Amino acid sequence: MAELTYESTLRELATDQGVLRYHEAGEGAPLLMLHGSGPGVTGWRNFRGNLPVFAEWFRCLVLEFPGFGVSEPTDRHPMVAAPEAVTRFLDGLGLDRADVIGNSMGGIVAAQVAAAQPDRVRRLVTIGGVGRNLFSPGPSEGIRLLVEFTEDPTRERLVQWLYSMVHDPALVTEELIEERWSQATDPATLASARRMYGRALLNARPPGDTPPYWAMLHKIKARTLLTWGRDDRVSPLDMAIVPMRTIPQAELHVFPDCGHWVMIEQKDAWESAVLAFLTRK
Description:
It holds the Pfam family Abhydrolase_1. By secondary structure, the protein is of the alpha/beta class. It has helices at residues 6-9, 43-47, 51-54, 78-92, 105-116, 141-151, 155-165, 174-184, 187-197, 199-202, 241-246, 262-265, 267-279, and strands spanning 10-15, 18-25, 30-34, 59-63, 98-103, 121-127, 223-229, 250-255. Strand 1 (10-15) and strand 2 (18-25) form a beta hairpin. The longest helix has 15 residues, at 78-92.
């Protein structure tokens, strides 16, 4: 396979609510990959290291959510806009069903789509994020640092947040800091982040009688693999208990010496486990 670069894989899909940008690689059954949140995040940065492996088996589609500086912006809360963006994206590509991998926020969005449209997701893989704190305090250390950066975006606060994302601090390189800083401080992206991580919004309850998304996990029909870093300081491991018990066909794989970015920090082991799950009869 030819080298997968940012430019060679970038695509655009025009929709009635703006352009959705995404990266595409490989052939076969569709595999939708949904990124997390946080300063300077993109789908490409979350999954660029995993694309060569999964593209050998699947048609990989890495969607860039509105509000994070790649797809066209949204004036709505990014978490509210994201599930609808997924539906528009699948409809726009003519895909009735797909496997879905979601990292953190992307896992929550994938779970929301799988619960609301159970026949649309064949198999679901999440990376941290999904569920709710049962024993650990909330907001977690990583979320508190994210809020602090969003309120006062300094390079030092960005570095502190990045260290909370990983078990091995050597992963926080100058190159990583620079690419995250450049996008995180873009005015439109920062404004979107403040709609999501403003301190006043952090513990806001759903409006009216709307149940939280984690109360709907029992509606998911897809076989589900929950993947988690044992040392996750953003979404601590006890959050996995609710989805593990309430998603009917869920299994949990915990990776040692690993923080929030399992697909990066335990890349080979994670790819092996996920490929085995997705290709299992």
